[in-house]
Amino acid sequence: MVWYLSPLSFLGKLCWVQEAGYRGSCQDEQNLKADERSRHGTVTPSFSALTRVNLILSNRLGSENPSIVAEMESGLKPMDAEELRENAHKMVDFIADYYKSIESYPVLSQVQPGYLRELLPDSAPNHPESLQDILSDVQQKILPGVTHWQSPDYFAYFPSNSSTAGFLGEMLSAGINIVGFSWITSPAATELEVIVLDWLAKMLKLPEHFLSHGKGGGVIQGTASEAVLVVLLAARDKVLRKLGKYFLGKLVVYNSDQAHSSLKKACQIAGIHMENYRVLKTDSSTSYALSADVISEAISKDCAAGLIPFFLCATVGTTSSTAVDPLSEVGRIAKSNDMWFHVDAAYAGSACICPEYRHYIDGVEEADSFNMNAHKWFLTNFDCSTLWVKDRSALIHSLSTNPEYLKNKASQANTVVDYKDWQIPLGRRFRSLKLWMVLRLYGLQNLQRYIRNHIKLAELFEELVAADSRFEVVVPRTFSLVCFRLLPRPDGQDNGYKLNYNLMDTVNSSGKIFISHTVLSGQFILRFAVGAPLTEERHIKAAWKALQDQASALLADPGNSEF
Ligand SMILES: Cc1ncc(COP(=O)(O)O)c(C=O)c1O
Fold first, then answer.
1. For a Cys-Cys bond, which of 176, 226, 422, 537 suits 219, CB 3.0-4.6 Å?
2. pLDDT at 229 over 80
3. CA 321/CA 405 separation, integer angstroms
4. For residue 385, which atom of ligand 1 is closest to its CA?
5. What is the pLDDT, as a whole number, of residue 326?
6. What are the pLDDT digits (tens) for 115-171?
């Protein structure tokens, strides 16, 4: 017989096995291996020592000594403070080590679809496994399948910031673990959210009507997609209350061809007829911002056709190229047509805490709702999407329910905020803790410095691109995103599509950096979004070198001569 003990040695458990009278047998060993094979597909060397002991033990004890099994099972202490202390320290060490070594991983995961099924058992364990073994699986099996959004070499999509403050807030939220759907379920959760959203609104110099002391207020949603959905529902119901529910088929929504797809999805969910979802054209003449004339013309046409324009969404910092729609003009059009005006500043809103970038949201005074993802570029771990509305009663009208089992004195007296009525789900996490941590542990000045530094790094990258005549910067940079491309041969076949696709694909496959793409005016464009918390100047320079080297290799390859 073989004792499957690791250097960890689990001495206590070994003694216990012996005390229980177990001496092992070849049969146990064979059973163990068969069981192991069926769970893992094959026997893997990393299968934990503890699990082996537990399996042997349970095979033995299960048939002969049910009372010991019962004792073992009743020994589960899922909230033992000392165990938490010990294991959480180990987990924090693991995460800190991950951050320290994050540059050594390929930024974009290089695994193939389905890779994990090969590595993990077919079913969950019957008996406990050790944290040590699980962390070793995380290291060997999970991390290879992770795309490292916190890597300093991550320049794709938009960032999704972690920070120590955000992490600590998440940890505290997980620790307290309340479900704060109404005030009474945890008054602090609701009240902190109200206060922290007022703080952030003041940092952004949002109009007074978004603050909680009036008719408006702020709420944390999970994502910008949820934010636009809830305000669309509020706007829809507001107009249908006036006109009657049979007018749903006449309601029209407007946004630009650069707006995020989340509004389209919200329309699908809200029952807005897809033929009434307007995608207004933009082009390079306005740097892909909405033009007031285009909106007015579309609205007039729809009104003439007997339709009802009711929702207009402008974006500050579009996903493709960070275009900024002119809020004042767009807002005035919305107002004069009695439409709900929503501003999506999911990414760029964060920059507006700096006085020099605040002007990008001038005109927000006209808005009925404003959204910014603190989980993008504001050091607040995912998820934390901050939404402010001018008239909270519109949201509540649409989303409130009042079942008997949730009734309570405070809610009935109408003296408190019940955030369940401002969102889709009932349950909600204590997310304000992490935003509060970020605001308190960093303070406004550091947050401004953080944003400015990324914009400066993006400026540097833009200069590097502009200095290489093989490339072009496609649209002027506004925040920390640079849109650029490798210039195709003038007689190239596809306007540089394949060349730039290959450039992106090869740099991403190298694992050195991760960038993304978009299409603007039919051109395949590379997006280089600065915003990961660990990114420094040296990463920008190394990224540019990786891109230049790959570009040189592609251009030298005779296979690309026709592009
Ligand atoms: C401008 C804009 N709006 C909305 C979204 C959707 O964000 P979320 O994932 O929070 O729904 C994004 C995502 O990148 C975005 O860039």
1. 422
2. yes
3. 48
4. 10
5. 97
6. 999 999 999 999 999 999 999 999 999 999 999 999 999 999 999 999 999 999 999
Q: What is the per-residue pLDDT across 354-399, written as a single tens digit (0 to 9) for each? A: 999 999 999 999 999 999 999 999 999 999 999 999 999 999 999 9
Q: How far apart are CA 160 and CA 62, in angstroms?
A: 48
Question: Residues 116, 141: contact at Cβ < 8 Å?
Answer: yes
Residue labelled with tokens 């679809």: 113
Give the containing element (helix H, strand E) for 344: strand 340-344
Using CB distances shorter than 6 Å, the residues near ligand 1 are 158, 223-225, 260, 262, 315, 317-319, 344, 346-347, 373, 385
Find the 508 Cα to ligand 1 centroid distance in Å: 22
Q: For residue 139, what is the DSSP state?
A: I
Determine the distance separating the centroid of ligand 1 and the alpha carbon of 264, expressed in angstroms: 12
Q: What amino acid occupies position 310?
A: F
Give the span between the Cα atoms of 3 and 280, in whole angstroms: 70
Which atom number of ligand 1 is nearest to the Cα of residue 227?
Answer: 11
Closest CA to 418 of 251, 174, 179: 179
Cα–Cα distance between 504 and 526 in angstroms, integer?
7
In one-letter notation, the amino acid at residue 206 is L
CA dihedral for 12, 18, 21, 26, sign (positive or negative): positive
The full DSSP string for 493-557 is SSTTHHHHHHHHHHHHHHTS-B-EEEEETTEEEEEEE---TT--HHHHHHHHHHHHHHHHHHHH-
Residue 26 has pLDDT above 50, yes or no: no
The beta strands (E) that lie in 225-328 are given as 251-256, 277-280, 308-315
Strand partners, 306: none
Question: How far is residue 204's CA from residue 199's CA, in Å, rounded to a whole number?
Answer: 9
pTM recorded for the entire structure: 0.87
Q: Does position 461 have pLDDT exceeding 70, yes or no?
A: yes
Q: For 46-50, 524-528, 558-562, which range has the lowest pLDDT when averaged over its residues?
A: 46-50
**Cβ neighbourhood burial of 23 (10 Å; 0-12, 13-18, 19+):** exposed
Asked if the bond preceding 494 is cis, omega within 30° of 0, the reply is: no
Cβ partners under 8 Å of residue 294, min gap 6: 280, 281, 282
Check: CB of residue 203 under 8 Å from CB of residue 353: yes
Paired tokens of 468 = 């290489």
Going from the Cα of 519 to the center of ligand 1, the distance in angstroms, rounded, reads: 17
Q: Do the beta carbons of residue 343 and residue 316 sit within 8 Å?
A: yes
What is the layout of strands, in order, in the sheet containing 340-344?
217-221, 385-389, 369-373, 340-344, 308-315, 251-256, 277-280
Q: How far does the centroid of ligand 1 lie from the alpha carbon of residue 227, in Å?
A: 10
Signed CA dihedral, 448, 169, 94, 92: sign only: positive
Residue 7 predicted with pLDDT over 50? no
Tell me how far apart the alpha carbons of residues 176 and 257 are, in angstroms, rounded to a whole number: 43
